Amino acid sequence: MNIEIVTPDTTIFTGTGSLVQLPGIDGSFEILNNHAPLISVLKQGKIKIKNESNKDQFFEIKGGVVEVLNNKILILAE
User: Fold this and answer.
1) Residue whose C-alpha is closest to residue 43's, from 31, 55, 60
2) How far apart are CA 62 and CA 75, in angstroms?
3) Residue 7 pLDDT
4) Which residue from 72, 38, 77 is spatially nearest to 60, judged by alpha carbons?
5) Which of 17, 36, 39, 71 is deepest in the core (most CB within 10 A)?
6) Measured between alpha carbons, how far is 51 from 63 in angstroms, rounded to an integer?
7) What CATH superfamily is the domain 2-77?
8) pTM (2 decimals)?
């Protein structure tokens, strides 16, 4: 999956991954390859991205929105 995390100031991550875990307002959820289209609001917390070699990266956000469409994940974060 192609993943992009964008803040008002800069792009903090662009790359690929096999799993993304996000802090949704109703609880944490994960996105895997070929996920159905989705738009969701995010709360403060950590984004976890598992890359193709099973290494985890974490990004702290204050909130935002995620869009999933055609194996592309766009996260607009604060």
Assistant:
1) 60
2) 12
3) 95
4) 77
5) 17
6) 22
7) F0F1 ATP synthase delta/epsilon subunit, N-terminal (2.60.15.10)
8) 0.92
d(CA 1, CA 29) in angstroms, rounded, equals 16
Q: What is the pLDDT along the chain (78 residues), one digit of tens a residue?
A: 999 999 999 999 999 999 999 999 999 999 999 999 999 999 999 999 998 888 999 999 999 999 999 999 999 999
CA nearest neighbour of 4 among 78, 62, 70, 66: 66
Backbone region of residue 17 per phi and psi (left: phi > 0; alpha: psi in -120 to 50; beta: other values): beta
Helix or strand or coil: residue 51?
coil
